[in-house]
Write a structure and sequence with these properties.
It is a single chain. By secondary structure, the chain is mostly helical. The chain has a domain of 52 residues. Helix content is 68%, strand content 0%. The chain contains four helices and no strands.
């Protein structure tokens, strides 16, 4: 099953791209790669200190919030269990309604 001729493909067929030749392109790329490999970890961190500080602050803040929320939930659950146990021990008639 042949598709009908596409006017766009026919219009683009004679069009050819011929980019200018850069003789030192490959050498320049390897030079830039070599310059980056000589960069030490300390130089990298100093150059990106603000970004690392923001990332560390976000991670520490998220961990602190998660830990706090988890601790609060556990305290609430322990408080409820303690109250139920206390009421059951205090009044045996409550045992039918509240079971620890």
């Amino acid at each position: 099953m042949d598709s009908p001729p596409d006017s766009l493909s026919q219009a683009l067929q004679p069009w050819k791209v011929s980019p200018p030749v850069q003789g030192a392109f490959r050498a320049d790329v390897w030079k830039r790669i070599g310059d980056r490999t000589r960069e030490t970890w300390g130089v990298y961190v100093r150059a990106h200190a603000a970004a690392w500080l923001v990332a560390a602050t976000v991670v520490i803040g998220a961990a602190a919030y998660t830990g706090h929320a988890t601790a609060q939930a556990r305290v609430r659950a322990d408080r409820e269990a303690l109250a139920v146990t206390y009421l059951v021990d205090l009044d045996p008639r409550v045992q039918a309604e509240l079971r620890p």
